[in-house]
Amino acid sequence: MTFRPPEALQKSDDADAIALLKRYYGDPYLGIGCADGAHFDTWATDSDPMRFTADDLIAIKFLSVEAPKTAVRALLRDRSGEFSQLLVDLGPDRDLANEDKPFGHTWAGWRIMDELRTIPGVGTTTASKLLARKRPRLRPIWDTVVAAVTDTVPAQWEPVRTALRADDCALHRRLLRLRDVVGLPAEVSALRILDVIAWREGKDRDL
Fold it and tell me: Can you give the pLDDT at residue 52?
């Protein structure tokens, strides 16, 4: 399993990473020209962390994902209790960089991803965005652009965890520093900073 940092983060200078973040989030934050996805991070952040809600289904629309009707029924009614218990089992949100052991096959995070993907019409991209709504500091967003940039097409979560922890969590600390330099709110996690830099870089390369 591998992880390749976006080119902007392979450089010691932060200028390119900062420019990518400002293009996505606006300068100032949520200013004119910001991407629709910039609203994902702060949309109804008081939503119940132990239950998928209608606000979560709205929020992922900002990331160009439409929850199918099957997901609406499953998450908000038919299987709401099941997914709520899985979120309880996963525990509260926390930084992926602080997870000091690889995730076992029975870990609640994997179980949630697996169960989300049993819903007709929900693939890995949609599932990751839904779980990132509930655990933004713990679950990276997966899509084909980010996976291509970071070389994580076959596997993402564990390679990203390992990369964030390397060299005394140097990458994690850098991502948080970039967030502060750009003036983004605390709701924007280190994982989202990584996601946005990789996604914006990939789109510029027509990936």
Answer: 98
Contact 89, 50 (CB under 8 A): no
Determine if the peptide bond prior to 28 is cis (ω within 30°): yes
> Does the pLDDT of residue 80 top 80, yes or no?
yes
- What is the pLDDT of the chain when averaged over all its residues? 97
Tokens describing residue 125: 């991209």
Considering Cα of 74, then 75, then 77, then 78, what sign does the dihedral take? Answer: positive
Amino acid at 165: R
Nearest to 151 by CA among 78, 106, 102, 201: 201
Q: List, as one string, the DSSP characters of 131-190.
A: HHHH-TTT-----HHHHHHHT-SS--HHHHHHHHHHHHHHHHHHHHHHHHHHT--TTS-H
End-to-end CA distance of the chain: 21
Structure tokens at 89: 């089992």
CA 5 – CA 20 distance, rounded (Å): 14
10 Å Cβ neighbour count for 140? 25
Q: Which of 88, 12, 163, 44 minimizes the C-alpha distance to 57?
A: 44
Peptide bond into 68 cis (omega under 30): no
Tell me what the mean pLDDT of segment 3-25 comes to: 98
